[in-house]
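User: I want to check something. If I give you two sequences, will you return the structure for each one separately, not as a complex?

Assistant: Yes, each is folded on its own. Here is the first sequence with its structure:
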Amino acid sequence: MAGTPIKTVPWNGHVGAVSFTFDDALANQPQNLKPMQDDLPDVHVTFFLTDMGNGLKQNAASFAALAKAGNEIGNRTKTHAHLTGVGSDSELEEEIVKFAETIESTLAEQGADVKVTSLATPFCENNDKVKGVIGKRHFINRDCGWHGRNDWDTESEWMSLQAKIWTRSGATVTEMLSALDTAAYIGNFEGANPWDVQVKDGSWLVVLNHGVTDDAGDDYAINPSDIKKIFEHAVENKLWVVRLGRSVLTIVRTLLSMPRLQTLPMMVLQ
C-alpha cells in the first residue's frame, strides 16, 4: 500500500449510472424485454424473482435464458411476504436465505449458473431484524424511495437502497426521462427548490418496475414502448447501465490516510 494511492472512478468513468429492476417473476417481463435487449446489447437489468403465484417455477426457463444473456437474477422472497410481520427467525430464513438457494438451483436446472447476491423487499417493508437475515446471504437490498438517486460522495445504506418507483399513475414518461437527465447531470439545477435533494453532480439512479405490458388496466405495468424509450435515453445520456448486484457494489476501504476515499462507493465490473 506504500505505492501509488488508490483512485476511485465515479460510475466506472461514465457521467452517471442507472439500474433498472423488475419485480415478481412476471411472464410478460422476459416476453417483452428480450426483444428490446436484442436491439440494445449494452442494456442489462436486474430481475427480482419470487414464487408467489408459482412465478419462479412457471417462468424458470425464460429467466434462465435472460440470466445467460447477461442479466442479473435477484431475490424477491419465496412468497412475497410482509417480512416485518414474519414472527420467527426460521420463517424469515425460509423466505430469504433458503429461497435464494432455491432460485440458484432452479435456474441451474435450466442451464444458468446464477449467484443471488441482491434482494428487493416486498412492499418495501424493512427493519433491523429483516436486514440482519438479508445480510446473511446478500450484500445489497433494494427498498423504495422518492427520487431514487444515490450520490458518489455519500455512502449508501446497502441494506435499504432507495429506488424510484415507476407505475402508470405514479410517474410519467417525461418524469422518467427527466430523472435520467438528472442522473447524467444534464440541466440547470441552480433554481431547484430548497427542500429538494440537492443535485450537485452525476448520480446513480435505481428504477423499480413491475410488469411490461400494454394492458392499461395494470397500473403496476409500463408499456414496452415506453420502457424501450427510457432504455434508449439512458444510452443516449452515456449513463452506465449497471446491474444492481451483479456488477458488484462495494465500499473502498483503504489503509491510506485519504478521508475522501475511505467510504466512497465503487462500482467493480465482474
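And separately, the second sequence with its own structure:
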Amino acid sequence: MPQHPTHAAPGASRSGNGLYVPPAPADTPAGQQRRRGFLILLGVDLWERFSFFGMAAILVLYLTAAPADGGLGMSQQTATALFATYMALNFLAGLPGGWLADRLLGARRAVLVGGALIACGHAVLALAAAPALYTGLALVVAGTGLVKPSLAALVSAVSGTARREEAFTRFYMCIQVSALLAPLVTGYLAEKVTWHLGFAAAAFGMATGLAQFRIGLRALDTTGHAPTRPLTRPQARTAARRAAAVLAAGAAATTAVAAGVLPLLALLALLGLATVCLPFVYLRSLARRTTVDRARLTAFTTLMAASAAFWMIFAQSGSVLSLFAAHHTDRSILGFTLPASWLQCVHPLFILLLAPLTGRLRTTATTAKFAGALAAAGLSFLVMAAAALLARTGDVSVAWLIAVYLVYSLGEVVLAPAGLALAAAVAPPGYLNRFLALNGMFAAVGVVLGGQLYRLTAVMPLPAYFLLTGTLALATGAFVAARSSRLRPHLPGS
C-alpha cells in the first residue's frame, strides 16, 4: 500500500486521495522549456543529417560513374580516397568550428552560419560542372564543422549533466530517420534521373532545417546565445589573420587540383597525414593550457584513439560497401533493379531497431562499450571477407551486405553516444565544444586510414583487404579490454 510522506517534496502536488505526487520533469516550466529546446535541436539535426547522408549515399557512385552516364569517371581507389578525405574533413572541421563557437560566434549563431554554408555547398554541387565539385565539398565541410559540435553542445546544455548520455542516445537514434530516408530520395533522383538533382535535394533538406531552427530559436531562451570564452580584440585580429591564411591556402590547393597542376592523390595524402597527427598535437597543447587531470586526459586519449579503428570500418559504408553493392551484388527484385545507394538505408534501419539496446547498456562501463563496439566492427568485415570471396565467381545476394550492416550497427549504437558523453564529461569549463570536436577528430583519423588502406586493393585481393581491416579492429578491441582495469579509475561514470 502506498505510504503518505511526512512532507511534500518541493513543487509536488496533492492528488485527489490526499497523496503527494512528485511532478514529472516535463510538467514543470523548466522541463517543458527543456523539451521544446530539445525538439528544436532535433529538428535541425534531422534535416542536416538528411543532407549529409543523402550526399554520402551518392558521392562515390557519382565520382566513379562514366562521363557518358553523367559521372566523373574516377578510378575506385581515387574516388574512395577522395570520399574518405571529405568525410574526415567533415569531422576535422569541428575543431576550428568548435573554437569559433566557443570564442566568437556562440553555439546558436554557429549553427545558423554553418547551415547556410552547407546549403550553399550542396547547391554548388548541383551545378553540372566538374570544377564545382571541390568548391561544393569545401563549403559543406566548413558548414559541418560549425554545425555539428555546436549542436552537440546545445543538446548537452538543454539536457543537463544527469541526463547527458541519455539525451545523446535519444538524439542519435532519432536522426537515423533522416539517414533512412535520405538515400531513398537522393539515391533515386541521382541514379534514375540525374546526379545533380540528388545534390539539389540535399540542399533543400539543409535549407529546410535552417529555416526551422531560426523560427524556433525562442525555445532555447539564452542557451548558446553568446560565446563561452569571448575573444579579446587583439586575439580576434590574430585569429582573423590566421583564418585568412588558411582559407587562401585551401583556395590555392583547390584551384591547383581543379586545374590539374597538383595531383589529387598527393593532396589527399598530405591531408590524411595532417588529419592523423592533429588530434594528438592538439591534445598535447590542451594538456598544457587546461586544468583537466592528466591521468584522465590520457585515458580519454587512449579510448578516442582506439575508436578510430571503429570509424575506419564505419566510414567505408558509403564508399567500399557502396561500390561492392554496385558491382558485385544481385540487386534485382521482381524485375526492378534497386539503386545501389538504397542499400545505405539498411544501416540506419538497424540503428532504429537496436535503439532499446542502449538503454540496457547505460550502466555498462565505458571501456566495455568501446571494446564491444570494436569487436562488432571487426567481425562485420570478416563477414565481408567471406562475401568478397564468393563474389569472385559471380554476384552475391544482398543478404551478405545486410548481415554486415547489422553487425557493425550493433557497435555503432553503443559507441557513438558513449563517445560524445565521454568527451562532454571530460571537458573542462569553457572547452566543451572543442572536446566534442575531438571526438570527431579521432573519427576522422579512422576515416582517413580506411580510405588510404583501400588503395591496397590495387595490389591485394578484395577478400584479403576485408580480412586485414577486420583483424585490425578486432585487435584494437582486445587492447581496450586488456587495458580496461587501468583506464576505468580515470574515466567519469566507469
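Because they were folded independently, the notes below concern the second chain alone. The CA atoms of residues 209 and 230 lie 27 Å apart. The beta strands are 13-14, 20-21, 329-330, 332-333, 336-337, 396-397.
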